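Revision sheet: structure tokens.
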Amino acid sequence: MHGLEASAARVVELVAAGRATSRNELAVGLGLPPSTVNLRVQALLSAGVLVEQGEGRSHGGRRPRLLTVNPGFGHVWTIDIGSRHVRLGPMDMTGSLLATHELPISIDTEPTLLLGEISAAVHALPRPPGRWLGVGVGLPGPVDVVAGTVTLPSRMPGWRGFPAREALQRLFEVPVVIDNDANLMALGQARRGAPGETLVVVKAGTGIGSGLVVDGRLHRGRDGAAGDISHVRIPAGGDRPCSCGNHGCLETVASGAALVAQLGLHSTSDLLAATEDVTVMTAVRRAGGLLGEVLATVVNFANPDAVLLGGALAGCEAFVAAARGALYERCLPLATRRLRIDTVFGGADAGLLGAGSLALESVLDEALRGESR
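Predicted:
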């Protein structure tokens, strides 16, 4: 996004969070000239996204009009599809989730049938007041965001080349945006953190995915493969076959699926429920350490502000601690001097926050395009 649309989402985010209540505060927060901010704000006011009401404190001139987000403008639905479950819920224009729901699924289900099940679940749930403006969807595989298709997935049989966005738009009859789930988790963290940060965000669940935010912007790479650390080959992987067709990838020894298979369990949930078992804890710590080994190269290369861990395995402190320890042990001291290593904001809803953020950006783009016609 460029020009007027480029900062529309950021303007709304700052106002919604209460970090900017006037045009002057927005100019300071965005680091933009007041004249540029005024154009953005005026377009959002004309579109009905923002409203002005009341007056703020004067600092020597006229009292500024206070800006707020118009909750009546509408809402979006946000959907985070995993390998074994889907989380979903409505989000208002302030970026707040109004409710969340989780349903069991299998990503092995034929794509049209699975998306039909998810659509039926959404339509059966109570809908918030106001217009339904769009849908944001995260998928557990690489996505061509321009074409709206799934590309070369290693864990999604039957999805290769599938036109997911087109299928979803037929089911929902509103605009749909889609992306890889780890990318969306990274986007959600960037939107709720300090502006302009560089982040490495890892989703460690059944599989392992990673999203990269550079200077506050999601970096997808040439073909949408940026951040895919799951298929980095490591010595600990040996000759273990990977779902991608190679051998010895990180995913074969450090993912939830690998741990479940290694320990003879049924699911990642069973794994997390057995964390007091010494054998399970040893395996989880080893997996976290192996993830940290791979991330050390990323941190030395990118020198990010933070490494944030999400997904089911991030709910286990032993996994997070082992990854953190490996990073401090293997990275340059300069690269970790001010590095934050933490879990994602939003916990299990981190993917929903990201998918909703992408949907809101699309809604705002369309609203501003409508005003410019």
